[in-house]
Amino acid sequence: MLDKIGIAKRIAQELRDGWYVNLGIGIPTLVANYIPEGIQVEFQSENGILGMGPFPFEGEEDPDLINAGKQTVTLKKGACLFDSATSFAMIRGQHVQLTVLGAMEISDQGDIANWKIPGKMVKGMGGAMDLVASAENIIVAMMHTNKAGESKLLRKCTLPLTGVGCVKKVVTELAVMDITHEGFHLLERAPGVSVEQIIRSTEGRLIVHGDIPEMRI
Amino acid sequence: MNKVVSDADEAIKDIENGMTLMVGGFGLCGIPENCIAALVRKKINNLVCISNNAGVDDFGLGLLLQNRQIRKMISSYVGENDEFERQMLSGELEVDLIPQGSLAERCRAGGAGIPAFFTPAGYGTEIAEGKEVRIFNGKPHILEMALTADFALVKAWKGDRFGNLIYKGTARNFNPMMAMAGKITIAEVEELVEPGELDPNYIHTPGIFVQRIFQGKNYEKRIEQRTVRSKS
């Protein structure tokens, strides 16, 4: 089974040289720490940065330089800054090659819910609806089940949707899956996790073809 | 041409109860601190505020929320504010949540004379309810209306007497679009300079969009999430 860092490391293997990438809040942010050797990617932050760098050293924080999670960050050499309309032109206009974000639920048709629990939690969608509606390549980083052990990979989402039919791939603590017309297509198992365990933890349609390899982190 | 006013109190003197305001900033970054403080002092209420976020409990727009000066918020993300969440869940505060890119574009459209536009963002979700849907290039899009405001309150790094503005870092965010969409736009700047001192090649907001400008004071620039790495 993977921890959050393991999930981030596995998603980092999906990065390709030359890509512009938007990372959501939470596990997706960690992906930036595990870029494979020999490739260069640029991170887009929807509040107006292309070429976002790591956190600043203590004492060098700049209140005028934050990421979309409102954390203090730095700029890499060659970075640029822009307004929110330009930022979402990059996103809607499909100039960003990969979006990684978290989810509360996803369905086997690629629907995603991550912005609202009616009556309980309403933080808002932020940029998530724009991101999922337009990105060609969306990877979701999430936990396979909730604290009660119930699946969050469903036949149909129960929470208000963020987007429909948009998620292409999901990486959880248990597995890597593509989302196809037939449902979740199991590609890899996490170390020490059995196919049976993944089947038990997945409520949505799960396609298992032949031997499923263990992922290499 | 002189758009300079003495301070925030003078700049906002004709903002009245029930008006619609655009307020720049992303989180607490690039918010018009002086104008918000002046609105608190003026005690006007029933405001409709268009702003990406709603501040935190004791800073930014959170200060207006605590005094119940806001009737309705139009925002994309309102986490990190307990008082906001309480007022919203109890029904005291009307809230219109819209996708961040749509919010930015609706402000831009409002300032650019475009009454509405189609976007894929939000199709198939509850925010699309009641909105016209059209298929372009095989993909469904929803109709979003432009936004304008009685006043837009923006914050820039430097500005001149003509209202030309330059922002710093990620404090730019929504400020340029909101500056365009306000019937009256008030810019507060950290440094007010004479015309000619700003390089025309690097102006972000042309002065035509700004009606009033003043040099703000005592900027707190609070950091919401201080994250650092160690030197070792």
Helix content of chain A: 10-25%
Low-confidence stretches of chain A: none
- Reading the helices and strands of chain B in chain order gives HEHEHEHEHEEEEEHEE
Order of helices and strands of chain A: HEHEEEHEEEEEHEEEEEHE
Strand order of the largest sheet of chain A: 4-3-2-1-5-10-12-13-14-15
Helix content of chain B: 10-25%
Report the sheet-strand fraction of chain A: 25-35%
Q: Tell me the distance between the termini of chain A.
A: 11 Å
Backbone structural class of chain A: alpha/beta
Radius of gyration of chain B over alpha carbons? 18 Å
Termini separation of chain B comes to 54 Å
Oligomer: heterodimer
Q: Shape of chain A from CA axes?
A: globular
| Biggest interface found | A-B, 52 and 58 residues
By DSSP, the count of extended strands of chain B is: 11
| Overall form of chain B | globular
TL;DR of this structure?
The complex is a heterodimer of chains A (217) and B (232). Chain A has 5 helices and 15 strands. With 217 residues, chain A is α/β, with parallel strands linked by helices.
